[in-house]
Amino acid sequence: MCEKQNGCFFFSVCGDIRVTLLELKRGFHAPTLSSCEISLGSVIYAPMHFLVNTSATTAIQFPNLREIHGYMLLGYSSMHSFSSMFPRLSIIHGKDLYHGYSLIVMDNVFLEDFGLTSLINIRQGNVIIARNARLCYAESLRWNDIMEAKKTQVISRQNRDNCAFCPTCPSACWSPTQCQQRCSPNCQGNCLSETVCCPEQCVGGCHYSNITVTSSLICNACRNMRIYATGLCVEKCADNMLKVNYSFLFFQCFPCDNRRL
To answer: Domain Furin-like cysteine-rich: where (predicted)?
Structure first.
């Protein structure tokens, strides 16, 4: 989780997250990435379940990951749901795409539902969901609410097609018991709940910070840049602030010891 140290907000950042057969043979150590909140690269979970110890790969979790700057590939796994693996993932930027796709979900033989219940924004790139023989509800989701770029495509094929109805939700769902979050039209696609809008400069939703006494709303990601000292998202830097490009956030380091971190 983000922490406030010396008056400034710090976010746990990592590069690519790769759970592949090669990485597993090398001795992939998931706990070193369990605190990561922002992936500056892409997330690839493709363990080739038929060649590795299944219990070792299904126990991997990234409980704090909120933001992916590249693409996300989920494939060749024995997962039934990704709800426990990525419970807080809210935004995929798609700055780096896989053959034009920012989200790829393919060849998960036991996958029954996505479970990506916090995902509310994909900024760029297409989506493909294919050859997941048991996967339900791929057709029920309101993908137009998730996809920011209006000319993108969502391709769904060779999944289970007889379970599109959501039994406990009014319209769209990730699973039989997990409804897709809906924002009020006033929130412009960014909300904490249906009735609580996020600040205007947020993308990918927001969350309450338990760091400050006022428990203010903190953006999961910023549309433009973030003030380093407060964690707030802004359209541009103030005149007395230095814009620092970390490729994922523009941090304004003042008044944090008047130096660039």
So the answer is: 155-254
